[in-house]
Structures are given as structure tokens and as C-alpha cells.
Amino acid sequence: MREILEEYKTSEIRQFYRSRFALKLLFASLVVVGFGIYMGDLFFGRSSLDVLLGLQSGKEQLQKRVIELKHENAALQKEYFELRQLDPDMR
């Protein structure tokens, strides 16, 4: 009878450690999944999309402004060289 009780006690202890390990594994899995969701939201979430779209819009506006300034610069250079040809004393 004593052997049966000891065997039962050992099997209970093993079962306890198995269930404890399973809980630890479950908790670790939940932490990893939660962290993955957080990182996914951080990289691909709404705020990231808003920033990306804002930067693209700003880039387009800056490219248009560069083109406008190039045209303005060309017109001013043309005017400058025309004025310079009229005044021979300028070097």
C-alpha cells in the first residue's frame, strides 16, 4: 500500500510540475504575441501611416517648389545677363 501511495505522490508532483511548465509556456507565448501585436501597430499602425502620407505630401510640395525656384532663377539670370550686356563697365 505504501508503494502505491508513493507512486501516487510522485505522479502528483510530476503532474504539478507539468501543469506549472504549461502555464509558464502559455504566459511566455502570450507575452510574445502581445509584443508582436504592439510592434506591428508601431510599424504599420494608423499613426505610422499618417506620418508616411504627410511626408509624401511634403515631398511633392517641395519638388514643386524646387521647379518654381528653378524657373524663377532662370528668369532672373536672363535679366541679369541682359542688364550686364547693356552696361560695359560691369565685370
UniProtKB/TrEMBL annotation:
The chain crosses the membrane at residues 21-40. Keywords: Coiled coil, Membrane, Transmembrane, Transmembrane helix. It comes from the Bacteria. Residues 59-86 form a coiled coil. This is Septum formation initiator.
